[in-house]
């Protein structure tokens, strides 16, 4: 199911409808904004509404609206395409930095192993020279 972009008013109205709250009790939203939100929600098939000019006659949530709320209970807007691209680019840059750091760590491990082996060979030679004398 594709995510739908909501304005704050549309989100507030959709929550009110889903909780069976009378739309007249929704504060801070003009009747014209409520009607515009109802038209948008009806167009997206989330609700069924009957509107007569500046009067809301009937509103009910559809089965699609119920399913949408179950899948996306917070009604958050989908991320912007530009934001997704920026996140993907930053993830790639981060992974590249990690690979470079891992390469440096592998190099230092190899140098440490070689120096350890050379040190061991040096000790063995020193001990061998002492036993020969």
The major sheet is characterized as:
2 strands, antiparallel
Strand coverage percent: 5-15%
Number of strands: 2
What is the H/E order? Answer: HHEEHH
Features of this protein?
133 residues, mainly alpha, Arc Repressor Mutant, subunit A, 2 domains, two-stranded antiparallel sheet, 4 helices, 2 strands, 64% helix
Secondary-structure map with pairings?
Elements (H helix, E strand, L loop, with lengths): L7 H11 L12 H13 L3 E6 L2 E7 L1 H9 L9 H52 L1
Antiparallel strand pairs: 1-2
Folded structure, characterized:
- By secondary structure, the protein is mostly helical.
- It has two domains: about 10-70, Orthogonal Bundle (Arc Repressor Mutant, subunit A), CATH 1.10.10.10; about 80-133.
- It has four helices and two strands; from the N terminus they run ααββαα.
- Helix 1 crosses helix 2 (about 30-45).
- The model has no long low-confidence stretch (mean pLDDT about 90).
Q: In summary, what is this structure?
A:
This protein is mostly helical and 133 residues long.
